[in-house]
Design goal:
Number of strands: 5
Strand order of the largest sheet: 1-5-4-3-2
Order of helices and strands: HHHHHHHHHHHHHHHEHEEEE
CATH class of the largest domain: Mainly Alpha
Largest sheet: 5 strands, mixed
Number of domains: 3
CATH topology of the largest domain: Serine Threonine Protein Phosphatase 5, Tetratricopeptide repeat
Shape: globular
Strand content: 15-25%
CATH architecture of the largest domain: Alpha Horseshoe
Number of helices: 16
Length: 367
């Protein structure tokens, strides 16, 4: 069944490639069902404008103004990337890394991430650092990972600063140095990067000695998971309007990270605090009943690990509501589950709260 599914994906992608303009032309032809803004972008993409090709790819990737279509997104990313568009190169590399719309390929991912990173794209640099730190499809190389993280960190990317902190804290390719780690965590925390704030607090808290071997097993994958997940989400927007919204998108992503972190550490109060008072419960029950069910479910697990990959953020025109789609991997002592999840968040004062949550299971395993 899995082989057949991938075969269908490959055939579909090949069909689109065989007639590369058909998709955008059909989009333009159906302008009556689309907004003028989408039609304008599609027409410019067909005419060969790299920025518009990237914008159209982002639309297909997030389902903004057009039906979500990862293969179509990858097609237009390829066109823009071939013209040297750094953000398209980054996004295409990430698509190959995750197998989103294209066959999963570490070699192709590294090729496109390298091209983007050489143009100074910090997120491409961070993803390359994560790949070499974890040895994902390549020989593990701490020094190469360190080099890429340092390049991104020097440009102020908090994700890279946090990852450097992890490397110095655990002695990956460098001498173990918690003072240096704290410096990098502090720089990331100063930009309100939630994982850095949490790790910095843990460093300052007196704790029982932990063996270096055990610590390495738990911390290295955490740094890599964050790098891949966030970098996939935060590609630079394609339009002037989207560029203005980028900082708010980062705040939304930070809220999602905090939500997943609270869930993973089984902090029920913090976890539930991420949901709006008027949260639309999945089965129409009262919020209090739903919250009680969630508390029972979370308290009943000895261990929970939540990993978010390929998040995509779409802001509404007034930046008062955001839709975030991502792949969620849930692991506990009883269950392993992968879902395609979408969260709708709304601004409540200075915070972003979850208003609606939908999920579609894509894989399940019992333990």
């Amino acid at each position: 069944m899995i082989t057949k599914h991938w075969l269908c994906c490959l055939v579909a992608f090949a069909a689109v490639q065989a007639n590369p303009l058909a998709l955008a032309q059909s989009t333009s032809a159906s302008a009556g069902a689309l907004s003028p803004a989408v039609t304008k972008v599609a027409d410019a993409a067909v005419a060969g404008d790299a920025e518009s090709q990237y914008a159209l790819a982002q639309m297909y990737g997030s389902g903004s103004g057009v039906p979500r279509d990862p293969a179509a997104a990858a097609l237009w990313l390829q066109k823009a990337a071939n013209q040297g568009h750094a953000n398209a190169q980054f996004s295409l590399g990430t698509s190959y890394l995750l197998g989103d719309g294209v066959p999963k390929s570490t070699a192709s991912a590294i090729e496109w991430l390298n091209k983007s990173a050489q143009q100074g794209n910090t997120l491409a640099q961070a993803n390359l650092g994560a790949i070499y730190l974890n040895g994902d499809g390549v020989a593990q190389n701490f020094r190469v990972a360190l080099s890429w993280f340092e390049k991104a960190a020097a440009q102020g990317l908090p994700l890279a600063q946090y990852s450097l902190g992890k490397m110095h804290q655990n002695g990956y390719g460098v001498r173990t140095d918690e003072a240096m780690a704290a410096q990098w965590y502090t720089r990331a925390a100063a930009q309100d990067y939630a994982p850095a704030r949490q790790t910095l607090a843990e460093l300052k808290r007196p704790a029982a000695p932990v063996s270096r071997t055990a610590n390495a097993v738990t911390t290295a994958p955490a740094a890599v998971a964050v790098a891949v997940a966030v970098a996939a989400a935060a590609a630079a927007p394609a339009t002037a309007a989207a560029t203005a919204a980028a900082p708010e998108s980062s705040v939304v992503l930070a809220a999602i990270q905090d939500w997943a972190a609270a869930w993973s550490r089984k902090d029920v109060d913090a976890y539930l605090g991420h949901y709006a008072d008027d949260f639309r419960t999945p089965n129409g029950e009262s919020r209090s009943d739903w919250a009680a069910q969630r508390k029972t479910r979370i308290d009943g697990r000895k261990r929970i690990v939540i990993k978010i990959t390929a998040p995509r953020v779409a802001m509404n025109a007034g930046n008062s509501e955001a839709t975030v789609a991502f792949t969620q991997e849930y692991n506990s002592d009883r269950l392993t589950e992968t879902s395609a999840k979408t969260l709708v968040l709304t601004r409540r004062g200075d915070a972003w709260k979850i208003l609606q949550e939908t999920a579609r299971k894509t894989g399940t395993g019992r333990k």
